[in-house]
Design brief:
Blueprint: H1 27-30, H2 33-47, H3 59-87, H4 89-109, H5 117-140, H6 142-147, H7 149-174, H8 180-199, H9 214-221, H10 224-255, H11 259-283, H12 289-309, H13 313-327, H14 330-341, H15 347-374, H16 379-408
Length: 410
């Protein structure tokens, strides 16, 4: 039985079929904001060695950094809609990028030897800038999303992955050439250029569409299938961001890698995720999704075991590339299923899901800070291993639920 095409439920007047939709002022350019979003959210995991944390064991402080990042992202969920309503899309996008550039310059000023507590405010502002940017982007790309959801989501994911890869590669190449302050000034130029670009673009006036009725969303969340998919997405993002936040520190302290090489491994991890998701778009129509999900979860668990057991750079590189490639197809597969379970489209609603999911993913590196502080840095690989096992259990539960539903409602 083919899954229902929920896009057919949208009124034909809401679906701009003409090619002019893709040329709407600002709609296509707003997609570039996902590149800035990737830079901002991947920045913390890549910059930690430049702040000297690869030679320290203050893991609890690293956990506080991620707490501040989560708080910033969540604070924007309520702040950004007010900015959009009062100032419009162009001003909000420009302000979000400007805030990001200012936060990075603030962090550059308070880089070591300054006390780490001063940097918490800057990390909070980085998270807030990313959250505001997400809200504005989801509203700006609504027309092209409704025109072609699959292409829009794929392009957004590629740009986000490129941003994550770019910031890790940039810090790795500059580690021994520039100071931590200078590196962050260079990174601040990225959102600064986007702020100038958004300020010069004339966006279509924001048309506020009423969100789906509360009872509709509640009914959708009551579906056991939806609950299981949401839990899978939560653990999956936790696995990805646990690696993104701690991989350089783990490789430096566990294997004795140089900080530059460890951050380069992080860049390879992001590249494996990016290439894996592009390849997944070719694989998905040709393989059974259930079998592909199971294979990816098992391979990701095997990769975590390799990283836990290895004592050399070759084993680390093998584990990192395997893990990135195995985690890559899981997210688009789960998002595809969630799109069928939550048919009600509203940009604010999807931005809330995205921001909460990203905050949930950031809980993993935050929790790892306290586990590593109490136990050992090897907990960095133990948590993704446990998370992958949790995803496997949830997939089995999802399969059982589907079988029962098919039996009870043939």
């Amino acid at each position: 039985i083919r899954p229902r095409d929920w896009s057919s439920d949208v009124c034909s007047s809401d679906l701009p079929h003409d090619p002019g939709v893709l040329a709407m002022p600002g709609a296509g350019g707003a997609l570039g904001g996902f590149f800035v979003s990737g830079v901002l959210l991947a920045y913390l995991g890549a910059i930690l060695p430049s702040w000297g944390h690869h030679v320290q064991s203050d893991y609890w402080m690293i956990g506080l950094y991620f707490v501040a990042l989560i708080a910033g992202v969540l604070s924007a969920v309520r702040t950004a809609p007010q900015w959009l309503e009062k100032k419009g899309l162009g001003w909000t996008l420009t302000s979000a990028c400007g805030l990001a550039a200012g936060a990075l310059l603030y962090l550059a000023f308070f880089s070591p030897p300054s006390v780490a507590w001063w940097r918490l405010r800057g990390v909070l502002l980085v998270g807030m800038a990313a959250g505001v940017l997400h809200t504005a982007i989801f509203h700006a790309i609504s027309p092209i999303y409704r025109h072609d959801p699959a292409a829009t989501v794929n392009l957004a994911g590629i740009l986000f992955g490129l941003g994550c890869f770019a910031v890790a590669l940039l810090i790795s190449r500059m580690f021994y050439t520039y100071t931590a302050s200078a590196i962050q000034v260079w990174i601040a130029l990225i959102p600064g250029f986007f702020a100038v670009g958004y300020a010069r673009v004339r966006f279509v006036p924001l048309v506020s569409s009423p969100p789906p009725a509360a009872h509709v969303l509640i009914e959708e969340f009551k579906n056991p299938n939806a609950l299981l998919l949401s839990l899978i997405l939560f653990f999956q993002l936790g696995n990805e961001w646990a690696m993104a936040g701690w991989l350089p520190l783990f490789l430096s302290q566990r294997l004795g890698m140089s900080p530059s090489a460890a951050i380069m491994m992080l860049a390879f991890y992001w590249l494996a995720l990016l290439v894996g998701r592009v390849v997944a778009q070719w694989i998905l129509p040709r393989f059974r999704h259930g079998r592909l999900l199971t294979t990816c979860v098992l391979v990701s668990m095997f990769a975590c075991v390799i990283l836990l057991a290895t004592d050399n750079s070759f084993g680390a590189a093998t584990g990192v590339l395997l893990l990135g490639g195995a985690l890559a197809p899981i997210y688009p597969l789960v998002v595809e299923k969630i799109g069928a379970v939550f048919p009600s489209y509203h940009p604010g609603f999807y931005n809330g899901i995205f921001s909460l999911a990203m905050a949930g993913g950031m809980l993993a590196p935050c929790t790892l800070g306290y586990l590593a502080w109490m136990l050992d840095v090897r907990a960095v690989m133990a948590v993704p291993l446990i998370g992958s096992a949790a995803v496997a259990i949830l997939l089995i539960a999802l399969w059982i639920e589907g079988r029962l539903r098919g039996y009870l409602q043939p």
